[in-house]
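Structure (tokenized):
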């Protein structure tokens, strides 16, 4: 008579896998999580128990994120992983905290991931204030102090605008807000031509309105010298180059990769390329790192929610982009990876598949 197999240790994974979520980011995030889970299984699982991922689509919707957290808690998940969109991650984090469910957020960067300090929530991606200040430093070094932003209503975009404005102002810089929801980009281009900004930042969704907005600006001869930027990282994914081609080049964005790949990072990236059929984004590596960290927490502290929530200051893991350990920076409501790499990158207009590193921080 065969022995009953041990029950799996379940981790819930949240990702935007349908519109209006950024589905390409969600697919990469899940691919990274799944690869790491398979590696955990190949090395004995969690104290002999298999590791099972239970993936749920948030579609970047806070209400769907909350419902997914409720469902995953009911299914016995010992921890949550993932999410890309800040508005969905905030909702998930609040609900997970209320339910006593630890959550390691992979990709969302908004500083106020929770409204109050909590020991249950940790994050791998750098906080928005760090990344967007580095982006502002890049703009200043490149001679762009007068900046316009094409933006849509969102707590994330509003926070980013505030960070840019506060960081540029002491250097004499200005930030002018333009509404990206206009039915025609002609008026927006007129405002740019008349306003004197030397850079336009896309604080907008992808593909709409970001793609048609880029096309409109590129085709306006009055704006030939205008720098287009995308601090939120829209050009990272292959869909950007496929839709825009050369028009999508020379648009600097934030990317959370080291200047040179680590040996582990190169190995994982090769495996993810085979799985995805395309070059993996940094979001795929964030997914891999998330499950790797949670697996180490479960192995070293036990497959128990309270044990995982208590492990953040103690866990140390070699991730795909460097050694991962967590601290509580002053003012942060959550545990934070102290040293995620950060660079400003763009795509080469002559070869949109090639990335160029412009600035590191």
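Design, position by position:
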């Amino acid at each position: 008579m065969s022995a009953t197999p041990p029950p799996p240790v379940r981790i819930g994974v949240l990702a935007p896998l349908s519109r209006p979520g950024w589905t390409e980011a969600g697919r990469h995030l899940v691919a990274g999580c799944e690869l790491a889970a398979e590696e955990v299984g190949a090395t004995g699982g969690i104290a002999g128990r298999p590791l099972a991922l239970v993936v749920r689509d948030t579609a970047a919707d806070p209400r769907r994120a909350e419902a997914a957290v409720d469902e995953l808690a009911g299914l016995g998940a010992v921890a949550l992983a993932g999410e890309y969109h800040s508005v969905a991650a905030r909702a998930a984090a609040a609900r997970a905290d209320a339910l006593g469910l630890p959550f390691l957020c992979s990709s969302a960067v908004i500083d106020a991931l929770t409204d109050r300090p909590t020991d249950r929530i940790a994050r791998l991606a750098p906080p928005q204030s760090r990344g967007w200040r580095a982006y502002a430093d890049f703009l200043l070094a490149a001679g762009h102090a007068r900046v316009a932003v094409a933006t849509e209503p969102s707590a994330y975009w509003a926070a980013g605008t505030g960070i840019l404005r506060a960081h540029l102002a002491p250097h004499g810089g200005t930030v002018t807000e333009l509404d990206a929801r206009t039915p025609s980009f002609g008026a927006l281009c007129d405002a740019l031509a008349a306003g004197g900004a030397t850079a336009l930042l896309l604080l907008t969704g992808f593909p709409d309105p970001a793609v048609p907005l880029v096309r409109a600006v590129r085709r306006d001869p009055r704006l030939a010298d205008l720098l287009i930027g995308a601090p939120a990282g829209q050009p990272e994914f292959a869909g950007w180059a496929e839709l825009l081609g050369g028009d999508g080049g020379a648009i600097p964005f934030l990317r959370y990769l080291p200047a040179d790949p680590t040996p582990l990072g190169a190995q994982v990236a090769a495996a993810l390329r085979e799985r995805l059929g395309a070059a993996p984004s940094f979001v795929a590596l964030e997914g891999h790192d998330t499950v790797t960290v949670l697996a180490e927490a479960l192995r070293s502290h036990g497959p128990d929610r309270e044990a995982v929530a208590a492990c953040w200051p103690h866990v140390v893991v070699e991730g795909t982009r460097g050694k991962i350990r967590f601290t509580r920076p002053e003012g942060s409501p959550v545990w934070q990876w102290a040293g995620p790499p950060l660079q400003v990158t763009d795509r080469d207009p002559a070869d949109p598949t090639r990335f160029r590193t412009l600035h590191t921080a």
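Reviewer-requested clarification: Residues 23-42 form the longest helix (20 residues). The mean pLDDT is 96.
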